[in-house]
Write a structure and sequence with these properties.
single chain; about 160 residues; mainly beta; 3-stranded antiparallel β-sheet; about 10% helix; about 35% strand; binds zinc ion
């Protein structure tokens, strides 16, 4: 079966590695600019003020397209997670690492990387549990990109 071009993703030059995962778009450019300033931004509907995921372009409450960017608190809880033990390439040395969904204080859910509480033993992710309080940090991860990640406790 042949996949369409869009489904393959665009290659991204990141250090020595090429990944097909990261596709900045006009709708998320401001989000990534916020990351460079260590600001975690989400969208707010200009009509009804409902808060949204950075990629949303239409309000799910009122259907209006106008969105403003607002700075989120950077605090939330672990909504779901998975500990990755087997992977390939540049991610292998990081295993076991944890990815999942953070429920922000503002009610928005976002896929992210979770880090254990400060001072945890190397590779000990046991402090990451459903409902754990987390706060945002900005780190350069394996891809060579500055990314928002969420650490248990913090701030
Ligand atoms: Zn709205």
């Amino acid at each position: 079966m042949e996949m369409s071009d869009w489904a393959k993703g665009l290659p991204l030059r990141a250090g020595e590695n090429f990944l097909g995962l990261y596709q900045p778009s006009p709708e998320t450019a401001e989000y990534w600019e916020g990351v460079t300033r260590h600001e975690f931004l989400i969208k707010r509907c200009r009509s009804c003020a409902k808060l949204h995921h950075p990629r949303r372009i239409l309000c799910s409450a009122c259907g209006e397209p106008g969105m403003d960017w607002v700075r989120a608190s950077g605090r939330g809880t672990v909504y779901s997670f998975s500990e990755i033990h087997r992977t390939t390439g540049i991610f292998s040395p990081a295993t076991p690492y944890v990815v999942g969904i953070v429920a922000l204080e503002e009610g928005v859910h976002i896929f992210t990387r979770f880090l254990p509480e400060e001072g945890a033993a190397d590779k000990d992710n046991s402090s990451i549990r459903i409902g754990s309080a987390v706060s945002v940090e900005f780190q350069v991860l394996e891809q060579g990109m500055l990314l928002p990640v969420f650490r248990v406790g913090g701030e």
